[in-house]
Amino acid sequence: MTYGAALLETHPDVTAELDLKPLVAAIDATLDCAQACSTCASACLAGKSVADLRPCIRTDLACADICAATARVLSRQPIDDLATVRALLEAGVAVCAVCAEECESHAAMHEHCRICAEACRRCEQACRDLLGTMT
Amino acid sequence: MTYGAALLETHPDVTAELDLKPLVAAIDATLDCAQACSTCASACLAGKSVADLRPCIRTDLACADICAATARVLSRQPIDDLATVRALLEAGVAVCAVCAEECESHAAMHEHCRICAEACRRCEQACRDLLGTMT
Amino acid sequence: MTYGAALLETHPDVTAELDLKPLVAAIDATLDCAQACSTCASACLAGKSVADLRPCIRTDLACADICAATARVLSRQPIDDLATVRALLEAGVAVCAVCAEECESHAAMHEHCRICAEACRRCEQACRDLLGTMT
Amino acid sequence: MTYGAALLETHPDVTAELDLKPLVAAIDATLDCAQACSTCASACLAGKSVADLRPCIRTDLACADICAATARVLSRQPIDDLATVRALLEAGVAVCAVCAEECESHAAMHEHCRICAEACRRCEQACRDLLGTMT
């Protein structure tokens, strides 16, 4: 069990409108994705193809920033405004999809991109799943 | 002139689809708002009415996280995916509006809330203005 | 295997002065600790004893900020300046020790504090271990 | 007057051990420096010399992360543990000095590096000044 799950289970006041399971899954997925993207950006920057990988580095960094903010907002319970969370999850879905596509396009050459694409796809799905429970 | 403006003016490759003036205004406003919200949260937490101000503290912290991430994403040029920026600006508009309303509701009693509400309204407008140039 | 570990193993240029095992352990521990502290702050804020738990909330938030920054800096390889990393790890050790002590002092009453104290102690040790390999 | 200053002046409980003036100066300088470094990293990445500027990009990103965390920790009042703040300010001094030196070394060629070096030097000094009042 992750710290996200363990702590939310002991939290005195989690937003009733959100199911705990997809909420915890989204927190874990955004944290993993932020970390995968930070390291992928660093690996892309350090390698020989840095000039070609610039869009990948920028998208990695954007994805890391948005996912890290999303994890923080989701972990802060109860949530006072679901409209904000919905918009933030939409941003997460958008950036994860773009970052996954970018990383997939050179996954054959760069193992860090292959792994990062996987984390982005999982995070995209977790954000979609949580959004699905909010309508 | 702020560092945001000065540096973007020397940047070799700013997204052509974005006008520099509303872009710099949005960066400055999100940075100011993040700082106003962080300090307002701290002031609300330290005062006598902490139990009543809990929704204000949570909204301040969410607004600070989202605005800080938005400032970073907007400062990273060129922007590779306008859809992500659009969704993130929508989240910024949403959280700034809620935070402004919350802070305005006790601005008469807490000067830090009055000032923070002002920063949130200015940021909400700056995000709307930039969104307006992107359609 | 965490994404931190997987990606660093595929990174083209990790600082030679750092052993991969304690480096990955420190990255994982700072990420876990940041998440534990964010949720503990939220739980402390939401509960009945909020007025008494204010130092715990502030220390949780400081620990989350410092650990999140440390995870990012450690994940960005190669590291160009070990003196900065050393100072940042010292800050991590300091804030984790204070946050652990604070949380331990009411671990009997608040399960989220007990779990958070555990994450802080583990992170304090991981930062010390990495510092130990750097001298 | 910045939002940092305005809000701290309305804060009900600022740490007595810290003078407000160097505290506010350090908050403002770390915020400016974080923003300068984020944009400088983006400009270095976008330009023709990206391969040569990799150490500059990495140091910019580290400086942005550490300064942003420092601004947040300093803005959260009262401060419960001065030892943590001292260690964090030491990390700020270290990373600002390195980043300034790095940016100065190619300031003649890149205007964004010249401006960023200036922000780093000012921040290094503001952190030193605040440290000087804490002993």
Protein described:
- Four copies of one chain form a homotetramer.
- Chain A is built from five helices and no strands.
- The first copy, chain A, is mostly helical and 135 residues long.
- In chain A, helix 2 runs antiparallel to helix 3 (54-75) and helix 3 (54-75) runs antiparallel to helix 4 (82-104).
- Chain A is elongated.
Structure summarized in a few sentences:
By secondary structure, chain A is mainly α. Chain A has helices at residues 3-9, 20-46, 54-75, 82-104, 111-134.
Write the layout of secondary structure elements.
Four copies of one chain form a homotetramer.
Chain A: H1 3-9, H2 20-46, H3 54-75, H4 82-104, H5 111-134
How many E-type strands of chain A? 0
Main sheet properties of chain A = none
Averaged pLDDT of chain A: 95
Number of helices of chain A: 5
Shape of chain A: elongated
